[in-house]
Structures are given as C-alpha cells and as structure tokens.
Design a protein that fits this description.
Domain Glycoside hydrolase family 57 N-terminal: 8-390
Radius of gyration: 32 Å
Helix content: 40-55%
Domain Glycosyl transferase family: 746-904
Number of domains: 4
Keywords: Carbohydrate metabolism
Oligomer: single chain
Distance between the termini: 78 Å
Protein name: 1,4-alpha-glucan branching protein domain-containing protein
CATH class of the largest domain: Alpha Beta
CATH architecture of the largest domain: Alpha-Beta Barrel
Largest sheet: 9 strands, mixed
Domain 1,4-alpha-glucan branching enzyme C-terminal: 424-523
Strand content: 5-15%
C-alpha cells in the first residue's frame, strides 16, 4: 500500500555564456565544471539505476540556455580541451603524491572519475542531451523546461515579451527532444498571474512555487503543500515542501555541511605552487578551482583533515536513510489527516548535487535504491502521474511569490540592480513596435529583427540581476546586461533607419547565436491603445495613484475612482496610472477614464522601499510609453500621496508638466511624530511632493493646518476639497438582499454595531473592543462586526479573547464594496474611533446609508460631525466616552434615526459632481483663461 509520494525535482540552469573572441573566459568554466561535477555524474547515476532495474521517478528541468550550450559545437570543443587538461593535471597529481598515501589514493580516484567522464562524453559524440532523452523514454525521468533565457517573469513589463519567453522556450525544447513538455520551471519559482494564459496556450499543465506561494493562496489550500492546487485557468501548481528542503538546503542543519563531506573551498588550484599549477589555471595567472580537492569539511575551523571517498559515501547512505525515514513519517501523518495520498514536492537546483555538494549524486542514488529495494510505502512519482491519480483538485487564486530571499523579488530588484529595468522595459516596447511595423518577414530586416529579439532575451536573464545582488562577478553581469541592451538598441536604430550594417549583424549572430529558429513575430501584438484619442483638445490629466479599483486597500482607491469619473463627466480627459491586480487588463476604459495598470510585486516588511521604487519605475515606463510612443500629451499631473512622488517629480521635470498633489494623510500625523528611519524617509517624500507641486489639495481644514505646521507650506498654496460620497450606491435598492448571514453570523433582529476600515492602530479599533464590556453590560444581545483587514488583526482577536467578548465580536475580514455597503445600511450604529483621521470618508458613507454614527473628535471627522445634530462625538482615545455614545444611540432609537436623517439630508456639499467642479477650479489656477467654460458646466 502506498502511503505517500515523493516528487523529486531538479532544476538545471546556467546563463548563456559563449564568447567567440577568446577561449579562456572564466565564465565558460561555469558550464564545464557543471558538466563534469553535476550533469554527467547525475546521468551516470540514473543509468546505473536503470541497468539495475530500480524503479524511480525524477523530474528534471533543463533551461533553454543550458540546452543550447550543451548542444553547441564550439562549447563542446572547448569542453574537450578543458577535460584533457583536467586529466593531465590528475595524472600529474598521481605522480606528485606518491609519498603521500592518503592524497595519492584520492588523486587516483579523481583521475579515474575524469576518465569515466571523458568516456561518457565521447560516447554521445560530445552532445549529452540524448542521454536525458533516453531516461525519459525509459519512463524514469520527466523532462520539463524553463523560460527562454531564465528571465525573472514578474519584472517583464509586456505580455508580448512574456509570451516570447515562454513560446521560445517550448520551441527550443521541442526542437531538441521532439516532444512538448508538460511542465515548466518558472525561473526563481517567480510566479505572477500574468503568465497563466501563456502557459495554457502552450500546453503547460503544471509549474512549481515556493511553500508560501500556496500558503497565501485564496481560498487557503485545504491540503497545504501536500497536494497540488489548480489556478482558475486550470494549471496545476506544486509547492515546495519546507521540511525536505530544510534538510538539504539549510546552511546550519543541512546534510551538505556534514564534516565528512568534501570541502568545496579547498582546491589545489589555490593550494599548490604557482609554477606547478600555472598550466592548469587561467593564462593570466588567475587562480581557479580545478575540481581536485583533498580535504573534508572537518569542522568550523581552518584546519582540514584529508577527504575519504568511502567514508563520505557511507555518510551519504546514512543521510539518504534519514531523509527517507522523515518523509515516511511525514506522509503517514498527512495521509491520516488528508484522506488521500499526499505528495511531497522536493525541488532543488541540480548544480547543488555534485558541484556544491560533491556527494549529492550518491545521496540521490542511495535514496532511490532504498525506496525501491526496501519496498517502502513511500514511492517516487512524476507530477504528470500524480495529476492523473485524482479528478478533483482545489481551485485557488495565487499571489506573486518566489523562492528567493524573503520570498518575493528583493534579490532581483534592489539598489544594486534596479537601474536595469527602465532600459529593459524600453527595449521591450521598442521590440513590440518594430515587430508590429514589420508584419511579414523580409530578408535582411527579418534577420536584424530576429537578432534584436535574441539580444533582448539575453539581457532579460535573471542571472545578471542575481549576480549583481550577490556581489560576485558583478562586473561581468553589468557588462553582459549593458552589452545586450546596446546591441539591441543599435539594431533597432538600423531597422528604423532602414540601413542594416550587414557586417555588424553577422558578427552579432556569430557571437549570440542562441535559438537559430527564433522568430521576431512572436512579439507582434494588436493590443495597442487604439481607443486613446491623440488629438483631443480637452484638458488631459495624468492621474497617479498606487491603488485604484479593484485594488482597494484604503479610501484612496474609491477617492481616485469617483473623482476621475466625475471629472470625465465634466469634460476632462483623465488617464489613471496605477498598479495591476490579478487578471485585470493592463489597459481599459472605465466610465470614460483611461486606466493604465503596471505590474508590480508586492513585498512586505523591509522590502517595502523596494516595492515603492519598483512601482515608480513601472509607472515611469508606462507614462513614457504613452508620451513618446503613443503620442499622448498631458496638460497636468495629479499625484495622490507620497508613494508616487518620484514618478510625479520626474515627469514634471522631463516634460515640463505642471504638478498638483493631493495629500490624503501624513506620516507625522499617523504616528504622532517621526521616530524611525522609514518614517523619516516617507516624511521626506511627502514634503518633496508638496514642494514640487504647484498646488496641494487636502480634504479638511484639519489637514490644511497639519501641512502648514509640519511642512511649513504657505496657506495660499493649499486648497481644501472634501472627499465625496455617492449616495445612490449606498441607499438600498428595492430588491436588495441582506448580506448579514452571508458574511457574519448575526440574526437579522440582533442589534449590530459596525466598524469598517483598515485594522491599524490609528483607526482605534482597540478602543472599540475595550468599550464593549461596558456596552454589553446594558445591551447583552449586541453583536459587533469588524469589517476590514490589516496588520493589527491578530492582536485585536487576542484582545477580544482576553476581554471575554470574542463571542460578541465578528472579524469579517476584507469585504467587497457591495457587502460593505449592505452592512452599512443594516448596522444600527457605525463607529469610527480613530486616533488620526484626515477626513473619514467611511463616516460619510454610513451617513449616506442612513446609519447613525459615533466618531472620535479628531481630524476631518470633527469637520463632518456636529455632536447631537448629525451624529455623536466621543473624546479622542477615551474608552468610557466612546462606550457612552454607543449606548446612547442603542438606548434612544428614535433619536438615533433622527440623527441619521439629518446627516443624510446634509450630504449635498459632499456630492462628487460638486467636488469635481471644485477640482477643475484648482486646475484652472494653473491655466488661467485656458479652460473653456463649458468644460465646468
């Protein structure tokens, strides 16, 4: 009986390194070392298992750059030379160590291994790719591939370029192996929802993510990482098992660090005398690893004991047994709780086995032999086989994730490598325009376009950004990135000018000869912004906001949505540039508003500054594309909050466009001061945005006073325009259904006190919870609903439990606008106990829904509510005062209804039509006499 399955996945990849100009490039050794220490040893090991009738399954991903290099005749010739030198050195070592028995034995074993490697290599005439195909044909290895040049897919800007990376990869794989792969290894396990329809279009049935990629999925996968899930498009997703990874990858507890294993960093290329080793290192005298290493790890100190092949092999067998034991116990538990047979997905970089961990291939061989001959209830399986076992897998929506440091994109976008993306995105846009401008192939131009596609793809390799982050070989990574971008731009200029330098093109094709069958037409697209008017005489506004529906984090999304659509109704042409979410299109019109979305990763914690940097870079690229390529010109920029400061300032200066800024809140106000480096950084950007802006809009007199005090802004530079509310969508239609029982466990007759907002300290939800015991003492049937999410949620749940009120408090989490509006209509009291609130639009929304409100007398809430006239005010940060106001409304229901009626009737000054007209009035201050009167009618 099978208790569980092991899905062992090895991803083999190296960047494309092939230099025609000289044969002693250090970087080509990456390939030669990997062939000698990883690829051929793994193949030899798998072939031994097949000869011994060991039944096993392993999934092996071969990246297109690696496939291309293994098949390249020039690199095969150079590898033969490398291997001959290595054998010569080993022969010399056998002689040198005759009087050192331990080292002499090792030298002899190395020599024999290198000879075996040479024999294996020549048995395939220098091209070892067919050996992988044989293992696939034997039913033992499932071969899959990766993106064309191992590009970091979430940072690719355009769908056309994403498609090119995936389509080219499939074509290369099919050319060499004569079948299409079922799966794809996403480079760096970097998932973005944008890739899914491309994967489906090319027949990819599954891919892999890191564990947290599945943990953050919605809904939460019921089987965790022990079973694949399906994306909404139907592609299967396997997630890395953390326990099996930890035992191999961990630098502290992983097997490769065992003291009996070979020490990677002690190599005779560095240890032996210069005169002796010189013929076997770089001609310039640069010391390099030769692959001959005589010491074991021994311990944490500098003293190293001689390496013992036999002892290390025995230890690999012990570790294989330990790994097997742990996986067996793991699947036994999982099967009991799952009700189906679990699968443990254990993915690793192939180069770990043999190159970094010399005994790695032995470990895998011992593991697979134990699984077969010990007849364990744990079996190996390929992903395609596991997917065939069950007809039903859970469907979930994944978020962006990687297996890199921190789990997001920090490795590939930080201060060391962020400079590459504006150039790469510019090249993407140029490639698409050039491809669209040449719909059919045409001789020399076609060759130039195909070579331009190669150069773009090579520049997109994730390896270059990765190397810049690690700090090793940085000069080479920088040079390669700049080289390919320069070559692409040179070709693009030749194509545009219709003058191709044939000698230059031939030279590029000889050097960067990857993917001979590539076609530039893969970049062609009809998804142009045809709907955008380039000749409109109306005032054209570029609005920058990091959030816009359906991406709704706070009130900013609703503000920009309502303002932009009402500006359009009054004759303004509005283009909103914002962040993409899910599968929503990168360009669409919504109620006449042109919405341009940019793809941005969304990391947390210390990576937040990198997220903001990336957001501004992506926005800048999108705006440049509109201005420089699509011919859209803007009359002014309207920026919302500090997150878009850099792009707003840059566009203002580059295109000499006036800038208006709306400041919705300040870091000083949120924290009641500036205390940390992050707060100082945000505070400076807020000040910078207000300094660069010609006019600054705020939503309340409170905020006006705050900006005058905190930023020393002159009073006549600030305009106070309130937030608005759309009463029509908040007042119940005749057919409206109650959302109560769909979202929260409340009977329709139970009194409900509602809070809506982000769960952050400044919103004061902890004060509301503290007030509940007093309220329940008089009204024991009341239910309290907290609608929203945020970083304080766990603390608030704990607080409710400690207060003994958990059964009376329902944390509803994030709710849709429709449900939120329904809850606002049905609540008996809406409470907003903020510590800091620049405006308080949700209080207006409660008023529009004819629900009585209790607010803290702070900020903009104090402007909106007149105590005992259209709502009640509590003293700020005062639990007792807050409880008394809520009890007053629960006790005096007629009084509460009267307050709600007065509040709803007085909302005309918060009407969006009026606010949009006032906003145009601010715009007019920048263009006196130039905005037609009919535009503001």
């Amino acid at each position: 009986m099978t208790t569980g399955y092991l899905n062992l996945v090895l991803h083999a990849h190296l960047p494309f390194v092939r230099h025609l100009d000289r044969d002693d490039r250090l970087e080509e050794r990456w390939l030669f070392e990997a062939i000698t220490e990883t690829y051929i040893p793994l193949l030899q090991m798998f072939q031994r298992l097949v000869r011994d009738d060991v039944d096993f399954r392993v999934t092996l991903s071969l990246s297109p750059p690696l496939i291309s290099m293994l098949a390249d005749g020039l690199l095969q010739v150079r590898y033969r030379s490398y291997l001959r030198k290595l054998i010569s050195l080993a022969e010399k070592e056998v002689v040198r160590t005759q009087d050192e028995p331990q080292f002499h034995t090792l030298a002899g074993e190395y020599l024999q291994r290198f000879l075996d490697i040479q024999q294996f290599f020549e048995s395939y005439d220098g091209n070892i790719l067919p050996a992988f195909g044989e293992l696939r044909d034997a039913g033992k290895v499932e071969l899959i591939t990766s993106a064309a040049t191992h590009a970091f897919l979430p940072y690719i800007q355009t769908d056309a370029s994403l498609r090119a990376q995936i389509a080219t990869a499939i074509d290369v794989f099919e050319h060499h192996f004569c079948f299409r792969p079922n799966g794809m290894w996403l480079p760096e396990c970097a998932y973005t929802p944008r890739i899914e329809h491309h994967l489906q279009a090319y027949g990819i049935r599954y891919f892999f993510v890191d564990a947290h990629g599945l943990a953050a999925a919605q809904p939460r996968p019921v089987f965790g990482v022990a079973s694949p899930i399906l994306t909404h498009g139907g592609t299967a997703v396997f997630a890395r098992d953390e326990a099996s990874s930890q035992q191999v990858w961990s630098s502290e507890s992983g097997y490769p660090g065992d003291f009996d294993y070979r020490e990677y960093y002690r190599d005779i290329g560095y240890d032996l005398a210069d005169d002796y080793i010189r013929p076997y290192i770089h001609p310039d005298g640069i010391r390099v690893n030769t692959g001959i290493k005589y010491y074991r790890i021994t311990g944490t100190g500098g003293e190293k004991a001689p390496y013992d092949f036999a002892r290390a092999r025995e230890k690999a067998a012990v570790h294989a047994g330990n790994f097997l034991f742990n996986r067996q116990k793991q699947v036994e538990y999982l099967k009991r709780v799952m009700g189906r047979t679990p699968v443990i997905t254990a993915p690793y970089d192939a180069e770990l086995f043999g190159h970094w961990w010399y005994e790695g291939p032995i470990f895998i061989e011992m593991l697979l032999r134990k699984l077969h001959f010990d007849q364990t209830e744990l079996k190996t399986i390929a992903p395609s086989e596991y997917l065939a076992l069950y007809p039903d897998f859970q469907s979930c929506q994944l978020q962006m994730s990687t297996w890199g440091r921190g789990g997001y994109g920090d490795v590939w976008l930080n201060g060391q490598n962020d400079w590459i993306y504006p150039a790469l995105h510019d090249c993407e846009q140029q490639m698409i325009h050039l491809a669209n401008a040449h719909p059919t192939p045409n001789g020399l131009v076609e060759q130039a376009l195909n070579q331009a596609a190669r150069e773009l793809m090579l520049a997109q390799s994730s390896d270059w950004a990765f190397i810049m982050d690690t700090g090793t070989m940085v000069d080479y990574a920088v040079k390669r990135t700049k080289l390919h971008i320069h070559r692409f731009r040179a070709l693009a200029n030749m194509i545009r000018e219709e003058h191709i330098d044939t000698a230059y093109l031939a030279n590029l094709h000889a050097n960067d000869n990857i993917y001979p069958a590539i076609s530039y037409q893969i970049y062609q697209t009809n998804i142009a912004r045809d709907q955008i008017s380039h000749t409109s005489s109306r005032l054209r506004v570029l609005m920058l906001s990091w959030e816009f529906p359906p991406l709704t984090v706070g009130g900013l999304a609703r503000h920009t949505y309502d303002l932009s659509r009402h500006l359009v109704q009054q004759g303004i042409e509005v283009h909103v540039v914002t962040m993409a979410i899910g599968d929503y299109p990168l360009y669409e019109t919504i109620e006449g508003v042109h919405v341009h979305r940019v793809r941005v990763l969304q990391p947390d914690g210390g990576e937040f500054t990198h997220f903001i940097l990336q957001l501004n870079l992506m926005m800048l690229d999108a705006c440049h594309a509109m201005v420089e390529q699509d011919g859209v010109t803007f009359d002014l920029i309207h920026a919302h909050d500090w997150l878009v400061c850099d792009v707003a300032k840059t566009l203002k200066q580059q295109f000499e466009i006036p800038l208006i800024a709306t400041i919705h809140a300040t870091e000083y106000g949120r924290n009641h001061g500036i205390y940390t480096d992050m707060q100082r950084h945000i505070h400076h950007l807020e000040w910078e945005l207000t300094y660069e802006a010609a006019r600054v809009i705020v939503c309340s007199t409170y905020m006006k006073q705050e900006l005058e005090t905190v930023f020393r802004l002159p009073s006549d530079k600030i305009d106070v325009l309130p937030n608005g509310v759309d009463r029509a969508i908040l007042q119940a239609p005749a057919t409206a259904q109650t959302p109560r029982q769909d979202v929260v466990a409340i009977d329709n007759w139970t009194p409900m006190v509602l809070f809506v907002g982000r769960l952050v300290r400044e919103k004061g939800v902890h004060l509301l919870l503290a007030a509940i015991p007093s309220i329940l003492a008089e009204f024991p049937q009341v239910k309290f609903v907290i609608a929203g999410k945020g970083p304080m949620q766990d603390d608030l749940v704990t607080q409710a439990q400690q207060l003994g009120i958990a059964t009376h408090v329902d944390f509803a989490g994030f709710v849709s606008d429709e449900v939120r509006n329904g809850l606002l209509r049905e609540a008996d009291v809406a409470v907003f106990p903020s510590l800091y609130e620049p405006f308080g639009i949700v209080a207006l929304e409660a008023m529009a829904a004819r629900t009585p409100v209790v607010v803290a007398d702070v900020g903009g809430l104090g402007d909106i509510v007149r105590h005992a006239h259209n709502g009640l005010k509590a003293f700020p940060n005062d639990v007792s005062s807050l409880a008394e106001q809520i009890k007053w409304l629960l006790r005096e229901r007629e009084f509460a209804n009267r307050l709600a009626d007065v509040a709803e009737q007085a909302l005309s000054r918060f009407d969006w039509q009026h606010i949009a007209s006032s906003t145009i009035g601010v715009y007019q201050l920048l263009f006196p006499g130039q905005i037609a009167v009919e535009m503001v009618r």
